[in-house]
Amino acid sequence: MKILINGGAGYIGSHTTVELYNAGHTPIIVDNFSNSERWIIDRIEQITDKRPAVYEGDCTDTNFMNEVFTKEKDIEGVIHFTAFKAVGESVEKPIPYYKNNINSLLTVLEVMQNYNVQNIVFSSSATVYGEPDTNPLTEISPRKEAINPYGNTKLIAEDILKDLATSGANIKTIPLRYFNPIGAHESHLIGELPSGVPSNLVPYITQTAAGLRDELTIFGDDYNTPDGTCLRDFIHVVDLAKAHIATLEYLDKQTAPFFDVFNVGTGNGTSVMELINTFEKVNNVKVKYVIGPRRTGDVESCWADTKKINDTMNWKSEKSISEAMKDSWKWQKTL
Ligand code: UFG
User: Fold this and answer.
1) What pTM value is reported for the model?
2) Which of 123, 262, 282, 335 is the most exposed place for a label (fewest CB within 10 A)?
3) Which positions are annotated as active-site residues?
């Protein structure tokens, strides 16, 4: 299938582009490179021996998106990664978050309708579950009111997609609720490229180990968890990328209108401390850390029940936390 990947030069987008090629599909990238690098496209080519067509522009620009769909006549599906994703920044600057994350989706949906393109996979997040009442989280676990604009954009986007399908539109859509993506491609040619000081755990660990940061602060060790640090479902980014291909192939077999949601995780909760210990052990390197206060807005524990995606799409995560920590470190050392 010819698949448009909006945000295809980003962390999850670039890994998904590689996996689309591996599965025999043809990815076409749209990216404005506001939070990604042009050389990532060269790296995709190095890995796959294929160079995706790249359209540089903004998904919120209707004329530009119409041009892309006109030039690439036979697009069969869209994976929409385009979004700002820094939780803290979204609290400080809500307008660009709503504008970019919501308008880009609305524009893409409108243009898809103009061109009769039915399939769209959307990047949602486990953030829609807020503070879970119980773990693991299933897709019918209640969504909670968002505590930051970033999270709210994910809730609103899921609702837009659901409402569109309910309206009877010629659309087939699946928001994937990602848990915590980590790791890098085994070639170590692509990986996560945080801008500025990382807010996510793994880039902070790798930058500290590399001497770029003095020390890592663990945000709280007084949670009601086995070692007192938060529990998360850390999933290797290559496994997550493969879930998108399984989702597209599944969507393609459905009849419009169609809407459903799926969790994408490993099904295991791993603590922040366990992840740091694993990083140190598998890479034989020390990470200097201190225990600090809890970070506002963090949930205590959050991990996925993955039965729905395992059974429906015959997809499951394959890579371990240890592999992910080795890949993240090898990638960091190339930077
Ligand atoms: N953490 C630290 N120190 C750091 C960074 C993080 O202790 O320097 C801890 C956090 O407190 C948390 C865990 O590591 O307990 C994971 O934090 P991340 O920031 O890496 O990830 P989050 O679980 O907060 O957020 C992720 C995604 C969001 C998404 C959210 C909810 O980054 O996009 O999951 O699913 F919304």
Assistant:
1) 0.98
2) 335
3) 150
CB 1 within 8 A of CB 27: no
CA proximity to 3, closest of 244, 164, 301? 244
Which of 291, 292, 282 is CA-nearest to residue 325? 282
Below-50 pLDDT ranges, the chain: none
Q: Per-residue pLDDT tens for 151-188?
A: 999 999 999 999 999 999 999 999 999 999 999 999 99
Q: What residue ranges line ligand 1, CB within 6 angstroms?
A: 85, 125-127, 151, 180, 199-201, 204, 216-219, 230, 232, 272, 295, 298
The residue behind tokens 């010819």 is: 2
Q: How far apart are CA 185 and CA 210, in angstroms?
A: 19
Paired residues of 76 in beta bridges: none
C-alpha–C-alpha distance, residues 234 and 135, integer Å: 15
Give yes or no for a contact between 264 and 178, defined as CB atoms under 8 angstroms apart: yes
Dist CA 141 CA 3 (whole Å):
31
Q: How far, in whole angstroms, is CA 102 from its chain's centroid?
A: 16
> E-assigned strands of the chain?
2-6, 26-31, 53-56, 77-80, 119-125, 172-178, 180-182, 216-219, 231-232, 234-236, 258-259, 262-264, 270-271, 289-292, 301-302
Closest ligand 1 atom to the C-alpha of 272?
14
Q: Using an 8 Å Cβ cutoff, are 135 and 301 in contact?
A: yes
